[in-house]
Amino acid sequence: EWDLEKKINERALFPSQIVEQLDRFIVGQAAAKRAVAISLRNRWRTTNIADKDLRADIHPKNILMVGPTGVGKTEISRRMAKLTDAPFVKVEATKFTEVGFK
């Protein structure tokens, strides 16, 4: 058994361990959980690069989750934020459609 809190603090969770944590709360959506777990691991790895010049050239990427209502996008996002002790912000893109623009 591995120490979850220690791994999070060290940013040392592998994608499979991140998915394992998401599996505790989210049923299905295996591909989505895998994708966000890999993305989180890559984010942690780039922030831990020792070479400051190289680290400055690597820009973090955002994740855009697209899908129909009720498939678990918000819950995956909320759980990832909680797992990483990061703020959670939700923006409804449907409110920013081209309807009404010329």
Protein architecture, described:
Helix content is 50%, strand content 0%. The radius of gyration is 16 Å and the shape is globular. The protein has helices at 4-9, 15-23, 30-47, 52-57, 73-84. The termini are far apart. By secondary structure, it is mostly helical.
Helices and strands in order:
Blueprint: H1 4-9, H2 15-23, H3 30-47, H4 52-57, H5 73-84
Helix pairs in contact: 2-3
Q: What is the average per-residue confidence, as pLDDT, rounded to a whole number?
A: 80
How much of the polypeptide forms β-strand, as a percent range? Answer: under 5%
Give the strand tally: 0
Approximate helicity band: 40-55%
Question: How widely separated are the two ends?
Answer: 58 Å
SS class: mainly alpha
Low-confidence stretches: none
Largest sheet, described in full?
none
Radius of gyration, taken over Cα atoms and rounded to an integer in Å = 16 Å
Q: In sequence order, what are the helices and strands, one letter per element?
A: HHHHH
* Helical segment count: 5
Shape: globular
Characteristics of this structure?
0% strand; single chain; mainly alpha; 102 residues
Can you summarize this structure?
This protein is mostly helical and 102 residues long.
